[in-house]
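Reviewers of the previous submission asked for a worked example of the structure-prediction workflow described in the proposal, so we include one complete record here. The input consisted solely of the amino acid sequence. No template or homolog information was supplied to the procedure at any stage.
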Amino acid sequence: MAGVWVIAEQRDGAFRKITFEAVSAAKKVADGLGTEVTAVVLGSGLEAASADLGKYGAAKVLYADSPELAVYSTEGYAAAVADLAKASAPDAIIFGASMQGKDLAGRLAAKLDTSAAVDCTALAVEGGKIAITRPIYAGKVYAQVAINAAPQIITLRPNVFDIVETGGSAAVEKVSPALGAIRVKQVEVLAEEGGKIDLTEAMIIVSGGRGMKEAANFSILEALASQLGGTVGASRSAVDAGWRHHTDQVGQTGKVVTPNLYIACGISGAIQHLAGMGSSKVIVSINKDPDAPIHTKADFCVVGDLFEVVPALTDEIKK
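From that input alone, the workflow returned the following structure tokens.
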């Protein structure tokens, strides 16, 4: 076996949480296959941090240190990973199903003439092969699939796989993959102010929909999220109305999230929204319509006026 690779995702010199989840999941798969985990790190100034990936199960790190890789680019990263993969022939390459991971996985699968299984929620080893579980039909059905081509490209849904610290330090090997001509250059990153938690990594999300009536009313959700240590999301209808930025959108055409707690306020529960948050561990719905579809997905339902319920809930948490 040539091993299981994990493409580490970093931002501003720090690894994102999905990287640790992916390495931990890959370790279990590698153990079942009788092989090891290799983390691939692309960036600049990350050598010391790369060794720490051994804490989560990586036996080795292939580290490409280049100013051209400091900031993510589809062309640069795809070329680098493809060059390394062609030389080493890993059995599987695992990413987080983040915006970056989804973007890179498809391009890499095309370059390596293989297939990709995206947004996976479980991995197992059966009969010496990786069995992959992923949602289909907007999350109504879960399918178990296998990729017969190599390397197998797999992206993992964030917040689904546990982070397991195994101890140890990974051996870091510096590599210099061919990048080719990178035709697109990133000149500026416009980050959100206030250090807001990314929805895909948030453990608690308070979301609002059309029932919020206007943008100003999202302040009551901000207050509740602040008390809970979470962040605010929105349905597509709220985003389309201009009440929230697109980066806050939860759903099939927004971000797929898996928090420990998801509170849906004034959200009817369209199938596209349910596909984006249906795998949340605990779902609370607050809607005055007793027949709203969101109630059928929720673990706890509150049938009432959100403008009365949410402030009261926030006050109780403050106490």
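The chain has two domains: 4-174, 199-318. We consider this example representative of the routine output the project will generate in years two and three.
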